[in-house]
Write a structure and sequence with these properties.
By secondary structure, this protein is α/β, with parallel strands linked by helices. It folds into two domains: 188 residues, Ribonuclease Z/Hydroxyacylglutathione hydrolase-like (Metallo-beta-lactamase, Chain A); 125 residues, Rossmann fold (3-Layer(aba) Sandwich). The chain contains seven helices and 20 strands. It has a seven-stranded mixed beta sheet with strand order 6-5-4-3-2-1-20. The chain has a seven-stranded mixed beta sheet with strand order 7-8-9-10-11-18-19, with helices on one face. Strands 14-13-15-12-16-17 form a six-stranded parallel beta sheet. A hairpin with a 7-residue loop joins strand 8 and strand 9. The longest helix is centred in the middle third of the chain and has 17 residues. The radius of gyration is 20 Å and the shape is globular.
């Protein structure tokens, strides 16, 4: 068995299984429901939460195969098991076990820091690890999560006290709900763009309630915090609100002022639903994997860091094909 990076995404050769395929496939595991990881596959293996978010974004999902965490099932000669990835609600890693007991883990997007709105990550012990490397460069070291959220709260209070509308820019699925949950638990009233509001209501149906929350209708009432998707913040929708202050929540804030310019924000807070470089290294070690394949983002840089720690690691990129066992 080998893993191959095709134009459509990862594929386990010798099996019908793709991993986070970007276009329609006969059978794909979907680690989570962010738009760059989903498609209308003929059959989809995912958690029930991920399938719910997929249906919200894509419409009816053909032949969904919902799988609970920690409940192994068979696919031909292979045993498959989903484990929490800590990235967003319902995000999963996939462990594939051969009939001789050899284990491979595909992490998908990974976050090892406890979240208010996602299942805590579970270390997936394995022989071969395929690990996402979004923030795999050594310069990406995130401050403690509670510290960052506390800074966001202080920023919101400061601007509310001076009569400005605080606007938080965050992705509609995952990042927004993390910050909203933190602020709502501290008594803030929230108003959200429809794309964020609808996903947050799905979170509530899945057991993560965030209240009070109001659908944005063009108004922001005194004392409310407005959540808005970053890609729509430059279109003039925020122009009526003045004075206002705008912050973006993103791991790219580590890069400094460039993150503010990128999103048109006044300030950027390093809140991420991905693991930073030191966390990725610790996680790779904790799995006990003898063979590590880094993927996406700063894959080459992470592989180099892991090799410096004495681990057997290499980056996967087209058109390479790497034997897993």
């Amino acid at each position: 068995m080998s893993v191959e990076l095709r134009r459509n995404g990862l594929h386990l050769t010798g099996t019908p299984l793709s991993l986070d395929a970007k276009r329609k496939s006969p059978l794909s595991f979907v680690s989570h429901a962010h738009s760059d990881h989903i498609a209308r596959h003929e059959r989809t293996i995912a958690t029930a939460a991920t399938l719910r978010f997929m249906a919200h974004r894509l419409g009816t999902v053909p032949a969904p195969l919902p799988v609970p965490f920690g409940r192994p099932f068979e696919l031909g000669a292979l045993t498959l098991e989903l484990l929490p990835a800590g990235h967003i609600l319902g995000s999963a890693q996939l462990r594939v076990i051969r009939d001789d007991g050899k284990r491979i883990v595909y992490t998908g997007d990974l976050n090892v820091v406890p979240s208010l709105t996602a299942e805590p990550v579970q270390v997936a012990e394995c022989d071969t690890l395929v690990i996402e490397s979004t923030f795999g460069h050594p310069r990406y070291v995130f401050p403690p999560r509670e510290e960052v959220l506390g800074q966001v709260e202080s920023w919101v209070r400061r601007h509310q006290e001076r009569g400005a509308v605080p606007v938080l820019l965050a992705y509609a699925l995952g990042k927004s709900q993390e910050a909203m949950k933190y602020l709502s638990d501290r008594g803030f009233r929230l108003v959200a763009h429809a794309s964020i509001y609808e996903v947050t209501k799905l979170y509530g149906e899945l057991g993560v309630s965030i209240e009070p929350l109001r659908l944005f209708d063009g108004r922001v009432e005194p004392g409310e915090v407005l959540f808005f998707p970053p890609h729509q913040a430059r279109g003039g929708a925020l122009a009526p609100f003045w004075p206002r202050a705008t912050a973006v929540l993103t791991g790219w804030a580590v890069d400094g002022a460039g993150a503010c310019r990128r999103y048109g924000a006044d300030v950027a807070f390093p809140l991420s639903d991905h693991a930073d470089c030191p966390s990725l290294v610790r996680y790779a070690k904790a799995t006990g994997a003898r063979d590590i394949i880094t993927l996406h983002g700063f894959a080459e840089e992470l592989a180099q860091v892991l090799r410096g720690e004495g681990l057997d690691a290499r980056a996967l990129g087209p058109p390479k094909q790497l034997a897993l066992f």
